[in-house]
Amino acid sequence: MIDSVRAWRDRLRATDPADHRGLLSVGGIRAVWTDALDALTDEALEQIASAPGTPWASAAMAVPRTVPTSPVEWCAVLLTRGTEVTLKPPSTHPGVVPLLVEAARAVDLPLAADADRSSLLRAELAVVQGGDEAVAAVRAARGDRPTLGFGHRFSVAWIRDPRSMVGLAADTARFDGRGCMSPVLALTDLGLEEAAEALGEAMAAQALALPRGSLLPEEGAALREHRARARVGGGLLAGPDWAVLVGPLPDDEPPGLVRAIRLAHADRATAAAWLAARRDQLSTVGTDDPELRLPGVRVCAPGAMQRPPLHRIHDGVDWVSLAVARPQNPWVV
Amino acid sequence: MSPWTGEAAALADRIAAFVEASLAGRATETFDALAGAIHRWQVAHDPVLAALVEEDGRIPAVPVGLFRDPGVGTLRGEAPVVFRTSGTTEARRGEHRLRSTALYDLGAVAWARRCVPHLPARVEALLEDPALKPDSSLSHMVAGFGPARWHVRDGQVDVASLARPWSGPAFVPCTAFALAEWLEHDPRPLPTGSVLMVTGGYKGRIRSIAAEDLVREARDRLRPSAFVTEYGMTELSSQLWGTPATGFLPPPWLRVSAVRPETGDAVAPGEIGQLRFTDLCNLDGTLSIETMDLGAIAADGSVHLHGRLSGAPARGCSLTIEEAR
Under 8 Å CB-to-CB from A280, ≥6 apart: which residues? Predict the structure, then answer.
């Protein structure tokens, strides 16, 4: 099966996803498409193929609309194990699902798409990424049957070196800042002016290199509101398609905004305490601080937040080990 | 005695004169001249607004979310009157702080009587008593229409008090949800000459009401002599009035525009956009606001609502609950 998955991956590499970009720009979808396929290294796939345990007979995944390439890695892992996979595409836009299915059909991999919700109920394993309500709804509908639910999390950066702002800006540009691995807040012990300028310069460069795609109406309205908030409460550094919103260290999770990130000053101890207190809500922390430790949270370098390797902690769990085989113990996730 | 002093008092006088003159079909000055004067005074007295003024000097439409945090308006500290938004799901409610309701009352009553000429003097309100809920701008507005009985207590429609017979025609203002609840209790037809007013959204946190169904049922069972609709916001001092079959008409001292939510650019006439209001009676608050409501402005100036923008953009691996259904 692994040879077919490699062939599937290589077919996808030769495919231009531009016509399936959804909200992203042509450059935007191509960038995240390449990232997603680059994560499927031969070595990673071989590790999955050789993992012990009994694979799931069938799995269904609800594809989130904001991270259109999210099913790529799930399909690769499950298909490598011989699991039959069904993708439920978003109702608003199928995204890259048709490309994944078409390439799979060409190499005889058992991957299908089904827009009907019942596909999530039929499969032995269901995978749901999204809002807590969506995860709860699927779990409730499936009862005791195995459901891997990844509810709402958010991501943050902790930056000590202005040179790291280039990587951080790349993280905000991937998926246009949508997705749970996209940083909504950068904490820094640099001077705020220096940090804002470095980050703004990098975000402006990203806006040229990787143009922003479309906005949903509510996203545009939220951007205007939060730009206004920043002007009142701290400072705003912005171009037409990006924004650095300077403000105090927030108590609550900052709102997720398209191509915009909040920047707040914190000394090292304060930043560590802030992150530790929200550990259960965090998906990814991007940092240039090699001493940062956050057990259960994915910690990576700036620039790698939205380009995760296949083997990683995802929302506090080793998702690959859960996907490759049925658990020996009663299902507890 | 005017609650305002100095330049603000002079502005309040100009606003009152504008309201009265425009209702009489005259003009004391242009809308833009008065708006400019109010805006300059507000910028000098509201640091939040001052921070939002762009280099081009245009009057910024302040997003309504800023009324919640950090707060908008020329009044800091204690305020004689505070109207609050009803959003109970929000950690903090938006506040419209006023030195006085004099301008609010002047415009509200005058425009209501212009739009609804035969408004009965007696009021039977499916609203909370403003004496018990002084931060409700809607209850405050209705109290200005005449002696009223209030039939909502602690958020519940008081069906027993509504069941008592009314002696004559009444003005019956209600929110859509209160009206729906009342209709579930088999109400008697209203006395001849009564005017039914419905306001507020039809989509709640728990349930949605089909607006057309509610209107039809209310007409069939309550048989009002007139059925009117009202659109107002806590952050505004002026209201728009209409009927279920027409759009909402703004008064001459309230200018409405619609913009593309994605960009903030004006939409073409008649196109649906995010609504902005510039309210000359908003002397203590802020002149111009950007709402989360969607609507289209017809050639006659009437506003047709088309729902609301989501207040919380999809976030994270944002699979909406609808995706899972």
Answer: A296, A316
